[in-house]
């Protein structure tokens, strides 16, 4: 149930941002954009597991430039106000890494799937969606 719900949410989000249509199998394989073979996203989906309600969750995605030219993260968007992203603003030279730091506020109890959309100079017309998934659990009283 969770997997199908996550797929529907991802597909809806991707369509809303005007991404090229991709089959489910190509999305599971990895990066369906022109970034493929030029950028390595580590990880493409952040699995947080259970997190405590009210304690922000911070994770970092490594952005490794495996191309022969500078990589520029043109835009990084979060799908809601409960998730913010900071990222490397300067060009990332070949062989080097940058980052995308994602912070989710974890205010609401329950399962979550947050999408971070990224546009680069290698494929400026297309957003790549990376995910953060987990479950916010209520903190036990002391």
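-> sequence recovered:
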């Amino acid at each position: 149930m969770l997997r199908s719900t996550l797929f529907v949410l991802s597909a809806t989000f991707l369509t809303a941002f005007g991404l090229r249509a991709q089959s489910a199998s190509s999305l599971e394989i990895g990066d369906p954009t022109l970034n493929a073979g030029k950028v390595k996203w580590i990880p493409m989906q952040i699995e947080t597991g259970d997190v405590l309600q009210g304690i922000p969750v911070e994770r970092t995605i490594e952005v490794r430039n495996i191309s022969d030219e500078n990589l520029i993260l043109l835009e990084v968007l979060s799908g809601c106000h409960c998730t913010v992203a900071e990222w490397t603003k300067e060009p990332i030279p070949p062989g080097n890494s940058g980052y995308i730091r994602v912070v989710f506020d974890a205010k609401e109890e329950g399962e979550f799937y947050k999408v971070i959309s990224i546009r680069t100079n290698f494929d400026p017309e297309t957003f790549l969606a990376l995910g953060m998934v987990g479950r916010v659990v209520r903190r036990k009283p002391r």
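The chain has one domain: 2-136.
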